Predict the 3D structure of the following.
Amino acid sequence: MSLQSVAATVKTSEKESKSQQFSVRNSNVAVTRTYLDRLGVTTEDLDALKIIHVAGTKGKGSTCALTESILRNCGYSTGFTSSPHLMEVRERIRLNGKVMSRELFSHYFHELWDKFEQCEVPDTESVPPGLPGYVPPKFPSFLKYIVVMAYYVFIKEKVDVAVVEVGLGGRYDCTNLIEHPTLTAVTHLGFDHCSILGHTIEEIAGEKSGIIKQGVPVYTVPQHYTASYPVLEQHARNMGTSVIRVPPLSHYPNPPSLTSETWSDNISLALQLAKRWLDCNINQNTNTECQLNGEELTTDIGKAAPFEIPEPFLRGIRTCQWPGRNHVIQRDRVTYYLDGAHTPVSIGLCSRWFKSHTSDSRRKVLLVNTRGERQLSDFLDIIRRDIRVDLLIFCPNIASNNVVVKDCEWPEDLKKSMVEKARLNKEEWCDTGSGTPALFFSSVEEGVEHIEKTSNNTETDVLITGSLHLIGSALQVLHPTFLDDGEREVLKSGAQLIQSAEV
């Protein structure tokens, strides 16, 4: 069976079960654990990975990327799993800072597939998921398959540390089967996926804090919504630990100079996670020895101390690769600024980043889209407060109508609904009478072609934002070889935030 057909089978399985997913979220962890059991992976195997587990609404991916890069530059072998991917599913699993090669990804995918195929699984289709007696099917759904594969790969490749980004929420996320991580962290919290995680910041914080484990240190950043602190603190106290808030990056004696505020708190969090991990493991200490003792427990949220940043840490920040976030691509007289911002707070940071890097004398185009429950009108209001927009382009998260995407195409029914939603967004915008001209295109490729054909030798800045899926489609059009190029050079992305490692 080919990799393409295997992937199609897994995705079909996921699609068929989608109507049940939200009602059985609490079985996610147990089901994922079952698949690892079928592979012969034990709790001790997972503990040996010395995992850093990171949840949050905004910045968890970049925090993970930075932490991995710092520890790798300190001489440790690393594994890193994240979601979603931008262009190809293999991006979700990285070894020593590199996306898995197609050959290695295919090898492990088929190895797991063969093992699952050999399992004898009783027929319990009559028992709904989440109820006693339910037995997961022979093959995991797509998301569970990739998570299980990531842990399996990290164990087989014998990495020194695994950095794991939560997919959605925390408590019921399928990555949350880790019983003894070395460290946990919660990045900035905000409002996203509210229909699943809750409509108040307290509910959302409760879901994210589900990754906190017994006695394991948990770090967080200065939160925009302070109502999250008591929730995090209570969950930590229930687990015999405490929350440690990281200092502002400017408080370190030798902070790197940034060209954007976007990553400031994420860098500080990564610095503290890397330092604590090294403190726990420099002498091959066990995870248990890293846990907080009774004297370190506090009734308030503790504060981590800034420190002199060692050169390997600074090098890790400088060379961190995290495409699709603060990502710049130059094509002739048109400069594209890509950022996967998709919450009100991150959209505000994104628009300020764009403004700080562009000149008012240049033509300004905004190519935008959102998915799910996010309100595009709210995002546009935030962006237009910061920047002038000469042309607004609405298009779905579809790279092209003419070629097959490397990884997979959107299902036809979803494709049609995305196109229709983008068309309606454009019509609703025009009905507001804002005066800013707006156009609709059925793919990113068509939008880019229009921008470049109508630039008329005018220097143009284009901001593409609103969805990581949109960024993935844009990369397929603007830089289709970026995954292969990234193996050989540092992408012009997050690393460009760092002006200098000097004080």
Observations:
- Residues 412-431 form the longest helix (20 residues).
